[in-house]
Fold this protein.
Amino acid sequence: MTSDTMQCLICPGDRTVKLTRKPVPEPGPADVRIRIMGSAICGSDLHYYRTPQAERDQLGVSRLALGHEGAGVVDAVGPGVTYPAVGDRVVVYHHIGCGHCAHCRRGEPGFCRERQSFNQVRDGVDAEYVMVPARNALPLPDDFDFEDGSLLACNLGTAYGAVRKAKASGDMTLAVSGLGPVGLYTVMFARAMGASVLGIDVQPSRIEMCGDVGD
């Protein structure tokens, strides 16, 4: 039985994080509640971590749960939800759009003018539970574990979107500037699509990793 409260990780700022408790969210119409089984750290989380607490307090975000890269199991569904169902394994998609504008209908809620972001408007996935619209709970195949799943939407999705828009193929050379996690995934996808890749970074260790993943 679900408790009335849950643990979550908040970031007041000034390079501090804290465990706290919040009420477990109850799904409304067209919402699902997900029990988080795995979450990852994004560069934007580190930005919040390094921001002065006074600035985060002023923005009203210092008490919001961190994280936007998560995967888990649907725990409860709101009225009107036919998919996913309780017990389904899902990835949390991190851009929450209005659901009806042209961008949302094209499957690009990141461009929605009414977009809501985790840890900016609503609690994120560094918590025992998170609530999102059912359309933001994407199916997680059984051959992916939850750690892999937590990387699919933001990390891998960002990289895949870039090489798809670039129409990567064997008749081009792509330059990838910055070989952090998303940059390295971009290299991997571009190579898988047949493109030659020029990786650019100031850190020798990242350039070495680029050579490893680009083979």
